[in-house]
Amino acid sequence: MSRNLETYKIWAPDNALWTQWAKPVLFFWEPGLVNYFKLEIPEIKWIQSVDTHTMIIVDLPGSSGVSEALALARLGYRPVPLYNGVNSQTESTIVKVADIARALYKGADELSTYYIRSDAPPVFMLDSNRMSGRGKEPGKFDNRWCVFPQDMPSSAFLIRTGINKVIVRADSIQNDLSHILCRYQEAGIEIYLSKDEEIKKIPVVKPSMFKSLSYRFKTILGLTRNAAGGFGGHIPEPTQSSSSGVRYHGYG
Amino acid sequence: MDVFEFIIYFCSAVYSIIALCFWYVRITSIWPSENSNSIKYTLAFLPVISFAIILYTLKVLASFDVVGDIIYILFYILLGFAWLFIGITLVFYFFDLSWIDDVLQNRNKAALLAVSGAYLGIVIIYAGANVGDGPGWWCVLFAGGLGIVAWFIVSLVLNKYTQIFERITVERDIYCGIRVGSYFLASGIILARASAGDWTSFSMTIVEFLVGWPVLLLTLLAVLAERYYINAKKHERVENNYLISSLCLGIIYIIFAVISVIMYPLVENPIYGIISGLSGVVL
Q1: Which end of chain A has fewer CB atoms at under 10 Å, N or C?
Q2: Would the pTM count as exceeding 0.80?
Q3: Any CB–CB contact under 8 A between B172 and chain A?
Q4: How far does the CA of residue B117 sit from the closest CA of chain A (Å)?
């Protein structure tokens, strides 16, 4: 088995209940300098032990999300990577994901030593910087991405598996995530936000275009898909400008 | 072939070839590829079966000036693929059902079944619009356009009362995928018949399109069936297996569509008999 597939399988083993939601995008290519990358797994104080009725969403910037997820895995949670932005080796990448990829590769060794039940409650891992930066900038590698309701389990599935509480580990609830959380809230699942050491129950405000059939189509139009999966692609440089607009390589 | 036809020919060819390449590149670049053979082979087979359906229609059932003309047969095949890929994009826009995101990336089998049904439904409507004599490509687009608009409307009505698209893409309900995929195909068959026939005029095409009324009955049946499954699921604690009943319902939809088509056999337009007879005398 190739190293990238092997690493992916550690994060998304075939026998785990939540593997069907794991995204392989950051495992396509092994990032460089993995051995030199320092990954520190913090001691978690905001949660003491695994609760089979609680699902966690870690929405933190960069590799800190991986560290936090590994700390939760140590308690017995199943980490599920949902990172969907392609890692490009170029400097012009809009969302820096190289450190997340390195943390995933480095953390795989650690994760493989933990005992996690196949039906353990999940920790979904997101990068809070996923939509940061200006999109579709010429000359840049646009790997911004969004999470959609289709990328996470439905409220019916969560209830069937006994989950009635969702804790979001983040500074704030991002718009794309609120589309998912609002569905959970409607189904009677309680939503909590964990910032620093405190956890408090929050009401999730219905976002615009909630349950609109064209929401995903319109959102994806503003992003750049990658042929191999996920999001990421070079935005062509303009060849000339005029009062009528900008022309791009390859598009007349 | 006039200049405008040539432009349509060229645009359809470029768009179809790019879309087909994109389709197959996407399918082959799926990673990790294990456990995804059913998805890959089903998606890979759809353009092939679509080609066979369109080719058969053009060689056997199309206008008298098309069936024997290889240039026009190729023209309508390319136009058909352009129609198909635009249709699939519209399926994403109107139904939130994406072959890339749901089927390939999320490996959602329910979405695979629904997308396959939608794909074939769109192709069959186009093939139906090619059945019968007509003076040009715009007759095909007009009659087929009526069919595809009606197809989108009835599917959206079905979703309005049963949230089928949310249940397929978010809940990944495979049984709902079977039923909806069959519904897409069955409604496509009925509306293909409605789009078929010899061309007389725009207004007559609309009048003749009304033979597709059984699609309303089919939609009503599908609404009732989906409401039943929604209520049944609400009261269960563990997920039940609805495979057999969903397959049976899917077959019932298709049989209903076939009966609807048989009910209204195509009527030969007497004007075309006169025209072809006259042209035979002149020649």
Answers
A1: C
A2: yes
A3: yes
A4: 19
